Amino acid sequence: MVLPALLRRSVIRRSFPSSAAPGGESLHFSIFCERKSTFALSNATETVSEQKNEKGSNRWFTLPPFTATVNGSALGNRIMNGGAQSEAETSTTAITALKWVFRCCPELPRSLVQKLFRLRKVRRGSSMIENSECNLEARDQLKRVAANDILNIGDKLCLPISVQVFPTERAPDCCNKEEKKFIHSLVLYKDPAILAINKPPGLPVQGGIGVKRSLDELAASCLSYDYSEPPRLVHRLDRDSSGILIMGRTSTSTSVLHSIFREKTLGASKHANHVDREKMILQKRYWALVIGSPSHTKGLITAPLVKMVLDDGRSEQIMVVDNAESIMPFQHAITTYKVIKSHHGYTWVELCPLTGRKHQLRVHCAEALGTPIVGDYKYGWQAHRNLKPFPHNSHKNQGKKQSLPFGLDFESGSIAENNPRLHLHCKHLTLPDVSCALHNDSLDHDCSRLERLELDAPLPSYMQRSWDIINN
């Protein structure tokens, strides 16, 4: 199977004579293939050809012919099901004309591409249209194509040469050298398919109202490396939590990872009482410091969650519900836990979420175990009312705090201080080698034999200090 390849565009401004506007300028650009990633648009070099008629008007750009792409969702399902293949499963995925233009020309504004389809300015031609001048008869053979039309192997899309495109140079970086260096220091692991980042506490994962800097924006600016497409989020961590965050480096690998994370939650929800955590292909292990001590040293929490809207829709809170009595829609949520160490009213626990629900670990600790996480003032505010700093002198001997970009602070917030920060960290993550799966993307390949990636993220400084205090 031919794998996709990245495209790099260069825009050359030239002047073309025109009877309507003598001396007027028109933008002319060429799309060149430069293969560096295993998962881009094609291994073969393709050149966008400029199609001209005899009068020198109505010129077209022809995109590279559509080639088969990996069905990321189906591949992810096979990985999670131990290589089992369903009857309806195919190794390739259908793609619309709109998505193919986006993939071939990522620098074109999306609004412009969508407008071209609305105005029916995009045409589809067969492979007989080569890199040569296109006369009137050949041009008339081009058929209009809608945005949602499914492409066939070998189809070529033609765009008007007169489209106004943005310059191909990358947008100015939003980070200075110090900030770039810091973002690069967060990378725990990188291969052609994924990025693993040690998310710092206090940095939002995704942009939104009131968010100035987010990790997805910073990763797009600093961690694209030689790829034309930015890394994409696969899952999320709360703003104040920290630890391993997985991002897909291509649209295909992101689709595979989304499927793996989704199947993990669905599988655990269906077989809540028969989950063998050790055999799970995807495993996440969090470390948390909680107030108090669970009644058992280890156990399984199966407490469904429901979202409650508060303050006339201005905020929301997740709560544990009894699924037998609840009339509200709820989500199955399953967590395993194990006590690591207890000391003077605090306990370090290892939490393994078998499902991926919003605030799942925080709510399970606070409501199901009755031991809220240190620094969780949303779900454990009552336990924090009388919480006093742990008597310890280590913080008094600390030197000058390290200045970090984006206003981040890793030093303050341990249990030896007032108002400790959230002590929840994704410490360890195990997942299948998606890069290898994509490299052997045939349905005949045995996905059950994939190697596993073992990732580990060090604790932030304030949590490490709390760990040292408890151990002393």
Can you give a write-up of this model?
Belongs to the pseudouridine synthase RluA family. Residues 194-366 form the Pseudouridine synthase RsuA/RluA-like domain. InterPro entries: PsdUridine_synth_cat_dom_sf, PsdUridine_synth_RsuA/RluA, RluA_PseudoU_synthase. Pfam families: PseudoU_synth_2. This protein has 472 residues and is of the alpha+beta class. The chain is 21% helix and 24% strand. The protein has three domains: 7-160, no CATH class; 177-253, Pseudouridine synthase; 277-471, 2-Layer Sandwich (Pseudouridine synthase). Strands 10, 11, 12, 13, 14, 15, 18, 19, 20 and 21 form a ten-stranded mixed sheet that branches.
Give keywords.
single chain; 472 residues; alpha+beta; Pseudouridine synthase; 3 domains; 10-stranded mixed beta sheet; 24% strand; disordered N terminus
What is the CA-CA span between the terminal residues?
58 Å
Name of the level-1 CATH class of the largest domain? Alpha Beta
- How much helicity do the residues have? 10-25%
The CATH superfamily name of the largest domain is Pseudouridine synthase
Average pLDDT rating? 78
The dominant shape is globular
